[in-house]
Amino acid sequence: MFKLITLQDTIRIPPETFGSPLEKVGHDQVKAKYEGVVDEELGYVIAVTSVDVSPIGKIIPGDGATYHKVTFSLLTFYPVLQEIVEGDVVEIADFGAFVRIGPVDALLHVSQLMDDYMSYDEKQGVLLGKETKRKLMSGDHVRVRITAVSLGRAGSSGKIGVTARQPFLGKLEWIKLETSQPKENAEKKATENRTGAPMR
Predict the structure, then answer these.
(1) N or C terminus: which one in the chain shows less Cβ crowding within 10 Å?
(2) Which CATH superfamily is domain 84-181 in?
(3) How far apart are CA 180 and CA 168, in angstroms?
(4) Does the model's pTM come out above 0.85?
């Protein structure tokens, strides 16, 4: 899920930036330190949204910079187990599909796609269901549930696993078809009752 998190830190204002507006320099310093970071507590840091820098700083002997306390807000994405999310398929491979959820691509393994045998058509770049003939390709919009989360360490972006093998999950077109069929059957029965046709 996406979150807005407010944090406090101390930042270094380099002497070469002393003539520039403090808020701008502070924003640049916070952005350089936090944006793009993957952290076990914060998740994926997408953007710095606001920065409030204290005008009173400290000087450390031997360092020409000033150090200021700063309060700032971060927009983050933290994947939660069992959370249902929607995203676009960005890549198809023989072992499954990669789904873009927030700032990261999650793996939708071929075994977690649907209750059907899936084959990979490399020429067309699609995964095809043997019995259902349903296709999944790049650009398709899907609804999935997060089943595995491993946030990265030491520069790694981490791994997220998702499933579509549950009711009301999968490609949105498939979900629409599945939810409209019971409604159509109910309407058909209601029409038969009104016309006196025998019920099956």
Answers:
(1) C
(2) Nucleic acid-binding proteins (2.40.50.140)
(3) 12
(4) no
